[in-house]
Amino acid sequence: MSSEERGQRAATGVKGLDDVLAGGFVRRRMYLLEGSPGTGKTTIALQFLIEGARLGERSLYITLSESEEELRDGASSHGWTIPQGIEIFELAPPESLLDADQQQSVLYSSDLELGETTKRIFEAIERLRPSRVVLDSLSEIRLLAQGSLRYRRQILALKHFFSRHQTTVLLLDDMTSEPDDKTVHSLAHGVVQLEQLAPSYGAERRRLRVVKYRGTAYRGGHHDYTIAHGGVIAFPRLVASEHRRSFSRDPVSSGIPGLDELLGGGGEPGSATLLIGPSGAGKTLLTYGFVAAAIARGDKAAIFTFDEEIGLLKTRTRELGLDLDAMERSGTLLLQAVNAAELSPGEFAHRVQTAVEVMGATTVVIDSLNGYQAAMPDEQHLVLHMHEMLQYLDRQGVSTFITLAQHGIVGEMRSPVDVTYLSDTIILLRYFEAMGEIRRAISVIKKRAGPHERTIREFQIGATGISVGAPLQQFHGVLRGVPTFHGDAETLIGEAGA
Fold it and tell me: What domains are there in the chain, each with its CATH number?
């Protein structure tokens, strides 16, 4: 978008929303922001006006549903002080006009009919000549109109009046009167719909969608957003095709010689590796070997863990010679614990994108896909989100490692979701029995980027780290899920646990 085009847009002041709207609202047009109570309409409206004041524009907030005191209290809850340049016009009758004998509305007396309401709005616009206006809310206008035809005429009159005064207008609608009424949809230049979801467990999720935007190629689909201290933050839906950069595809070492041999020379930038196996098989610790090797090369890495407490994780890895604290202090490692019950998929994708584009991470670990699935409404959406994220990471030249715990420890094991077709490399981990002991086996069953070793090797996790043994050939039942070793003890890695 050119600087001239950006100048013709009114930035919303909501982080991420301008990206969805292709730069903001086209100036001198009327827009509808609709959503049920609690979706953040008032917060977005205040951010819209505060951004205008920051740019030196005069703004007007016309409220028919909240008092000026309530609006200022709401602003202060986000740490804001409504600045000079924003006037709040409280369009409600004084207490002296209320007459209980006439059974009047709590908000409006019979003296404040729709015509007078519209007239007072016009007078406020004529007096202030604002560049930005918020009208909160249409539900009260609809109640005063007492009919769809009269309501449409009043909205049309407001639209023409605002247009003559070259004002950018944001109409708020809480959809409480007639939720299916689309009167304003046809008259508004653009419509943004806010939605609040209540999952069966965890915090509520909020998402927005641009229903309509005349003459503008906006970012379609649903976009997650949150309401936090400081206002609304939107997370535009990640579109992998919009991101690409050149990078070298030279193999990168895992730091574990035997594993590099299994992988045909090592991992590859711009590819996704899935480590799949039963719980406790060593998936997480293997990925951390790749992280340590990347940092040793001078690169940066990011780990997003859904399943493990950070303190315990650092203790476990420290026993293997990996000091995650030191890596964090040096700025080469981003380690984040992700609460699937509190984080939306869009916000998680935003965190990953920030780690890559701001921090410069070239290795990303998602541990595990089981935890990531818990953040999703259903499996179909999980695969779609994961596909887009992996495509984005691949195009950025990032080496991505994903762990997936299968159901069960031994015997037939099943995965909670099938994402094997999305992975460029698949590393299979299994327990096996040999000489009366339980050991671990590792094999590479898929690699798109080139040849790989087709053998099965033993690996151990000990005080000196991870070690991978020589290829083992006397195995039976690996793919069945109950591998049994029938070779000689001399071919195994020392004694179990050594």
Answer: 3-236 (3.40.50.300), 241-491 (3.40.50.300)
